[in-house]
UniProtKB/TrEMBL annotation:
This is ABC transporter permease. It comes from Actinobacteria bacterium BACL15 MAG-120823-bin78. The lineage of its organism: Bacteria, Bacillati, Actinomycetota, Actinomycetes, Actinomycetes incertae sedis. Residues 106-289 form the SUF system FeS cluster assembly SufBD core domain. Signal peptide: none annotated. One of its GO terms (biological process) is iron-sulfur cluster assembly.
Length: 289
């Protein structure tokens, strides 16, 4: 175990990216105070089908990130849990990934890669459970013509802290569908992001969350339309009940000058079921010329 290095810019809460997040409840993930464990909790559930492998490899990140916690993860961890679906594999049953026992006294830093070969088709379901303090860099690559349905279930115990970036790179004519369900944990902060690599790519980012008394859930979507004729749809819906239940949804869509023929849509709806609950919703559309 080791104390995480502190040679990163520590958020203060005044930054736009951190203005809603309760930094004091992150258990040191943001400022280097957390003690890093050697846990590698992500596991497969059941036998993998033919055409799928789950290994641990030393892999370079697929993309840059300006998130300080992700930078800490990358600086601390070289081993990547890699789920690979080979080209032309069409899986009819979902692959389930789960968590082994966690802990609250130390923090796990996790790097994950999910990659689909050309024309592969798969459904991957990640069940996030247990008591844990977990920061995760999860990257997804969809090769041309592939199709992935990616489901994450945040069902952590009540004291857990989970911060993550779920970033998908979608290549030519590939289809990505993400479904994010968040119902458990003390603080959950997820960055579901997409970058399109070639024309014909499409992405659906769907989410549902239910926060009860004292819980804080934040989902920061970002879709980068950098190529022509790509399509994105972002639709998140939430409900809140109980004193100090707080949710945050940020919907950032960037349409770059080269992205002719872009088709994009985003929606967030929240249902407040009691007094004392708060839902922040901030859509942002930026169009370069």
């Amino acid at each position: 175990m080791s104390v995480l290095t502190t040679n990163y810019l520590t958020p203060t809460g005044r930054e736009e990216a951190w203005r809603f997040t309760p930094l004091k409840r992150l258990r040191g993930l943001h400022d280097g105070a957390a003690v890093q464990s050697d846990r590698e909790s992500l596991t497969t559930k059941g036998a993998l089908p033919s055409g799928a492998t789950f290994t641990r490899e030393n892999l370079e990140p697929l993309s840059a990130s300006d998130d300080v916690i992700i930078e800490r993860v990358r600086g601390a961890v070289s081993s990547v849990a890699h789920l690979s679906i080979s080209a032309n594999t069409e899986l009819t049953e979902p692959i389930f990934l789960g968590r082994s026992a966690g802990g609250l006294d130390t923090a796990e830093f996790s790097r994950v890669r999910i990659s689909l070969g050309t024309h592969a088709v798969a459904t991957v379901i990640v069940e996030n459970t247990t008591d844990t303090v977990l920061a995760e860099d999860l990257e997804i690559y969809l090769a041309p013509g592939s199709n992935l349905k990616f489901v994450t279930l945040q069902e952590f115990e009540s004291k857990s802290v989970y911060t993550a970036r779920h970033h998908a790179i979608v290549d030519k004519d590939a289809t990505f569908k993400s479904i994010t369900v968040t119902v458990g944990g003390d603080v959950v902060r997820i960055l579901p992001t997409v970058a399109f690599k070639a024309p014909g790519a499409s992405a659906d980012l769907l989410g549902v969350y239910f926060a009860t008394a004292g819980q804080f859930f934040e989902h920061r979507n970002h879709v980068d339309h950098a190529v022509p004729h790509a399509k994105s749809n972002v639709n998140y819906k939430g409900a809140l009940a109980g004193k100090d239940a707080h949710t945050v949804w940020i919907g950032d869509v960037l349409i770059r000058a080269a992205a002719e023929g872009t088709d994009t849509y985003e929606l967030n709806r929240n249902l407040l079921l009691s007094d004392g609950a708060r839902a922040d919703s901030v859509p942002n559309l930026e169009i370069e010329t």
